[in-house]
UniProtKB/TrEMBL annotation:
It comes from the Eukaryota. The keyword Calcium applies. It comes from Drosophila mauritiana (Fruit fly). One of its GO terms (molecular function) is calcium ion binding. InterPro entries: EF-hand-dom_pair, EF_Hand_1_Ca_BS, EF_hand_dom. Residues 151-186 form the EF-hand domain. This is EF-hand calcium-binding domain-containing protein 1 isoform X1. PROSITE patterns: EF_HAND_1 (PS00018), EF_HAND_2 (PS50222). Keywords: Calcium. The keyword Calcium applies.
Amino acid sequence: MKLDLTMNDRFNQRFQSVYGGLVPQIARLVPFNDSEVTCILLIYYKYSLQNGPSARRITSSQFVNIVIGFQQLYDMDVVDRIVTLIAGGRKHVTPMEFVNYMTILMSRDMERKMEFAYMVYDKNGMGINREIISSSVERFFAGDDDEILEMRLDMVDFLLLKFDEDQDGYISFEEYRSIVLQQPRLLEFLGPIFPSDETRMVVAYCTAIYSHIPEMATL
C-alpha cells in the first residue's frame, strides 16, 4: 500500500521500513494519533531525501528553512533559538525532535507555550535581563535618532517594571508566567515566536493533523 502517492514504490517501502516502527512509539508520547505521526514523518522523510537516497536525518540547516516556512517567522535570532532548543545545537534533527517541534507548533496549551517562549527569550539561561530586552526592543523601533532611542529606553524600563516583580534586574520564569496568566497577550512580549492561528491551521491541513483542526476534530 502506498502511503504517499507522490513517491514511487521504492521510496514508500523504504519509508515503512525505516520509520514504520517509530510511528506507534512516538504516537504514545505526543498528542497526535498514528496516522498524524505518519504524515509528519513523511514530511521529515522527504526532506531527508534531499541529503541522498540513503539519508535518514534532516540537517539543522534544513530545519531552519522549515521553521521559517511553517511559521512565517523571519527574525533569524528567534529562528536560531528555536532550532537550538529543538536540536540541541547538533548538525542534525532526529525524527522525534521534528515531531516534538510539531507538537509545539500545534499546541494551544498555555503552560507549554509559556515554557517554550521563555526559553527562546532567555538566551543565556540566567533569566531575561535588560540587555536581552534592549536587543529585542531595538527591532520594535527602527532608526537611531534621539526620539527613537528615548522610546526604546522607555519601553525597556516599562517592560522591566511590568515583569520584574522583585526588581532584581532579571525576569524569572515565575514572574513571566504570573504576568502572562493575567494578560495572555503578553505571551510574546519580546517578539513573535508562534505561528498565527491562520498559519497554524494551514500547516495542520497540509500535514493532515486533523485532530488539531477544530471543525474536523468533532467529525
